[in-house]
């Protein structure tokens, strides 16, 4: 026996004549365009990354830094 518990003789082998395709090896949601087009797939938008939020916030801080001296004086 080997370390994973299989005998050394004729072990696990995928035959060249076996009936398998790429569709059998992946989840249906990953490959189905019809599933992605369903109404419930686009209800919740994915969250933005921190780097995507950084630009607008830096712009807002810069604008506030320019306007603040005029408001205070």
Please tell me about this protein's structure:
- With 73 residues, this protein is an all-alpha fold.
- The protein is 48% helix and 0% strand.
- The chain has a domain of 51 residues.
- The protein contains four helices and no strands.
- The longest helix has 23 residues.
- It starts with 21 loop residues before the first helix and ends with a helix.
Secondary structure tally, helices? 4
Beta-strand content estimate: under 5%
- Rg (CA only): 28 Å
Mean pLDDT: 76
The proportion of residues forming helix, as a percent range, comes to: 40-55%
Q: What separation lies between the terminal Cα atoms?
A: 85 Å
> Could you say which structural class the secondary elements and strand pairing correspond to?
mainly alpha
What is the strand tally?
0
Report the biggest beta sheet as strand number plus sense, adding barrel if it closes: none
Shape: elongated
Uncertain residue segments: none
Write the element-wise H/E pattern from the N-terminal end onward: HHHH
Oligomeric description of these chains: single chain
């Amino acid at each position: 026996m080997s370390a994973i518990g299989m005998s050394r003789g004729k072990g696990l082998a995928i035959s060249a004549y076996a009936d398998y395709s790429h569709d059998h090896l992946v989840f249906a949601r990953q490959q189905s365009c019809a599933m992605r087009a369903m109404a419930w797939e686009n209800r919740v938008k994915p969250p933005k990354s921190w780097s995507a939020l950084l630009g607008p916030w830096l712009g807002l801080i810069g604008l506030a830094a320019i306007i603040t001296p005029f408001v205070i004086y």
